[in-house]
User: Fold this.
Amino acid sequence: MYNMSAASILELQTWIVYQRIAAECANCLFMTDNAFKAKDIGLRAQKKILSRMASKNVAKVFIDGTTASLLDNVYRLVKVHTGSKKDAERLVKNVIKIVIKIAVLHRNGQLNADELRQADRFRVKFQTLQMAILSFYEVDYSFDLNYMQKSLADCRSLLRSCVVRHLTDKSLGRIDEVFDTFADTALLETAFRQDSPYREIMDKIVVDLNKAMENGDI
Assistant:
């Protein structure tokens, strides 16, 4: 019988949920292909064991209408800023994979007491960051680049501390790539300018973010 490591099981569970999200969100801009493949025959053989995770209800935990719209608009922002459709797709897909893995770890009770405390600290810090984004965008001349970058760095550190014991270097690299993208000085300064060329996209992101926070989705 094929013996799977904890990391392999986590990868498989993530793959299953990701494929359900891909099916549920087939019309989303960022979901243009199934980039997350199960390469190992042994992993594919184990899919039936964990197939219960692939229900529509599980998918909706991660992607609802507001969240899909927010991710689409983040995709648009990154695509316009980088000029790369591929980079924008990879970023949003990495966000989804990270969220799935953390949720699976929590669902399976694999986070210890210290990791759960760090997760709570991350949640509070991330909510504060979201409020800052809304404030900086809605209040003229209030944008503070140093605050944004420090908050993003703090969120990255807290998130990594929750999962470093469980994730592969590749998955940890995805976390770094996501935060590096959003902390990019040129992106932040351009996005929050009064005459920003990204104004239309940012308007939509702010609407989605407000709605998601009101609904408790993020």
Notes: The longest helix spans residues 113-138. Confidence is low (pLDDT under 50) at residues 33-60. The domain at 55-215 is CATH 1.20.1440.160 (de novo design (two linked rop proteins)). DSSP finds ten helices and no strands in the chain.
